[in-house]
């Protein structure tokens, strides 16, 4: 299950439990709608309550990321798992977007807002 909110050019996505393809499709629809409205946005992905993701989500993420790489500003990922940091590093191979992993939401929001004092989590 996911939740999606929009705040001042930022899309905030929370993932709870298993991240499935239907959830990812909703995420895509929300991001595309915001891109049409704003032209460019930053993402805050809260993955702290994500249990896992299906293989089809991983494949769709690669496709979607490559198709919209130039329209996404920064991506801040909230997670305490080291595997997420590795995935973020691999994602940067497919896009020019800056991606950072954080363990605290205030630091992630500050970084997305352009603050230079925000430090990523220990595994980033």
Structural class: alpha/beta
CATH topology: Transcription Regulator spoIIAA
Main sheet summary: 5 strands, mixed
Q: How many whole angstroms does the radius of gyration measure?
A: 13 Å
Based on Cα principal axes, name the global outline. Answer: globular
Describe the structure.
A 5-stranded mixed β-sheet has the order 1-2-3-4-5, with helices on both faces. With 124 residues, it is an alpha/beta fold. 27% of the residues are buried. The two termini are 25 Å apart. The longest helix has 18 residues. It is 40% helix and 33% strand. The protein is built from 4 helices and 5 strands; from the N terminus they run ββαβαβαβα. The protein has one domain: STAS domain (Transcription Regulator spoIIAA, 2-Layer Sandwich), CATH 3.30.750. The model has no long low-confidence stretch (mean pLDDT 82).
Key traits:
124 residues; alpha/beta; Transcription Regulator spoIIAA; five-stranded mixed beta sheet; 4 helices; 5 strands; globular
Q: How would you summarize the topology of this molecule?
A:
Layout: E1 2-7, E2 10-19, H1 21-38, E3 41-53, H2 55-68, E4 72-78, H3 82-91, E5 98-102, H4 105-112
Parallel strand pairs: 2-3, 3-4, 4-5
Antiparallel strand pairs: 1-2
